């Protein structure tokens, strides 16, 4: 394993030093070159913006105010509001206890987005295991009721509706069909008696990292709803839409062209503009509070959903692009940051008018990779030797 890692790092170092700075497009020459590259049939009239990360100057734009489908780069909004409204050092707990009243058990949840329905996956990834907790609580019910599973009521709080459904399915397969009653958290606390079983999530920062690195839809949805509730909004798509718009307004960006139907980007009814997303990425990069968002983004040719990108399409960009990917049938998007010699650019590319099918998606991704390959180059500090002593 070590030798493979060494070979990879050596190859990466070779790639990063192979492209001389003279081969990289200067800011002045970018517009003409990009215009030609973006006219490729594989991209089919995309929207794009390129912003100087230091000055905020728009270096290039095409259809930048046109409403387009974002696909999974919508998760940038989810990540940003998670950082804004939630504590990155917090953990989620789920505890199950016997109830004070006979023939009751109490589940005290905290809307853990990380709970897994698969016990093996849960243990491997540090997730709370729903099967583990469900089995142990079932055993406890049998023990306290002489083996009977009849007439049991489960009082629960802080569980997602899908997790409640999963619990009911798990128990029903084992002959346990309790009455499920949702209560407020303080009522669950007052009714809890002896602890049976519990589990805890990793730090929220780790959950967010996984969400953005691997573009996990369910986690993005749950984190956005938790953020909406923390902001005082409804625990729903509407609440999410309101905090996404508020995030833009807070950073001086017009949200009028934002259409939010979900927090993951799965809906084809979502709409953003390249300008809107580009300006948001620029503003977030300047604020130390959102440094985690930058750190969580996949790195081109190295990690997450970008681990296989740029390796053959634009080797000079390997390791130099941090970005969120997005894919729907007929839509390929990419938004983030690219290092280019003495500066960093913010870029957003929304190709949502391409032909449907995996081949068209692959061609569009390759075209975007090659585009970024024209400006990507490592920032290698100049070494200044000490001046020789005067004779």
The gist of it:
With 391 residues, the protein is an alpha+beta fold.
Can you walk me through this structure?
The protein is of the alpha+beta class and 391 residues long. The model is unreliable at 6-11, 13-19 and 382-391 (pLDDT under 50). The N and C termini lie far apart (55 Å). The chain folds into 2 domains: 16-86 and 206-373, DD-peptidase/beta-lactamase superfamily (Beta-lactamase, 3-Layer(aba) Sandwich), CATH 3.40.710; 93-202, D-tyrosyl-trna(Tyr) Deacylase, Chain: A (3-Layer(bba) Sandwich), CATH 3.50.80. The protein contains 13 helices and 10 strands. The strands form 2 sheets. A 5-stranded antiparallel sheet has the order 2-1-10-9-8, with helices on both faces.
